[in-house]
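name: query_chain
kind: protein
chains: 1
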Amino acid sequence: MHVIALANQKGGVGKTTGTANLGAALAQMGERVLLVDADPQANLGEAFGVDDRYPGVRLEDILSHDEWNQSPGAWSHRPQADSDQLEPLPGGVHLIPCTASLANVVAELLGVPGAENRLRDALALYKDDYDIVLIDTPPGLGPLSSMAMLAADWVIVPARPADFDVGGAVKLADLIEQEISEFNPGLQLLGVLVSQADRRWHLGHDARSALKRDGVAKLEVEIPFAVRVGSAPRYGAPTVVLEPNSRVGAAYRKLARHVLTTLNAEKAVA
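structure:
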């Protein structure tokens, strides 16, 4: 099982959108995919039509327990609108959502011995159930982002082609290399994922040059800018499901193939 965290110190760079679409694209290719919402804003759950009204396990429930004997059941279905019936989550993914209470639970865990590894230990229980786990992280480098980094094998850094976003990506890459690797030596940067890309923007060219200058790996696949992507959450499904033939849908499928190629190559070497 491969665990990939999508992280950037900046907010609004496409972490949640990337997690939802990449996860759905991987699932459509036959991978068993688990998505984990580690951001108390709970937008990943909303992207799949899951909200606070529905009963089920959340990440805060998982982290608040000292020890689990078996993997807590992830969400594979959601209630249909105006019905008691359940329907599969769009894209065929499974999901561990969260609520705003996640922030309070993590605050209570601060100072508890071993708390920083609770996410890692919980995800280890799913190793026979899933091929790939994607973790959506909050902005910044707080306790939840640290938990995700300690649980992950790989990091994808979504960034818009803008100076501040790229600056956050560079800082995170340095942090992984210089500090986080001390506690999770197996963690690797899969690359910076440029989202909302529009090559007509001169700023985008400058940002890409900055990544190259600082020696930070950029994924070849870029996600094009599209206004409709921002409205996808209101339909409870990611763009790759809603508009599979769009430029954005095609880009995420291409990204999924690239990710699988990288993971399989690493597995072959190991």
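note: The first helix runs from residue 15 to 28.
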